[in-house]
Amino acid sequence: MNYNTVIKVSLLIPTLDQSGAEKQLALLATTLPRDEFEVQVIALTRGGPYERLLKENHIPVKILNKRFRFDPFAYRALKKTLQSQQPDILHTWLFAANSYGRMAVKHLPSSQKRPKVIVSERCIDSWKSNWQNKVDRSLLPQTSLLVGNSQGVIDFYREKGVPESILRVVHNGIPSANSTVCETTRCQLFKEQNLPENARLIAFVGRLARQKRVEDLLWAVELLRQMNENVILLVIGDGPERAKLEQLAHKYTVTPNVRFLGHRNDVSKLLPLFEIFLLASDFEGQSNSIMEAMSYGIPVIASDIQPNRELVVHGKTGFLTSVGDCTGFAQYAERILADSQLAKEMASASQKRMQEEFNIDKMIQGYATLYREVLK
Question: Mean pLDDT for the chain?
Answer without folding.
Answer: 94
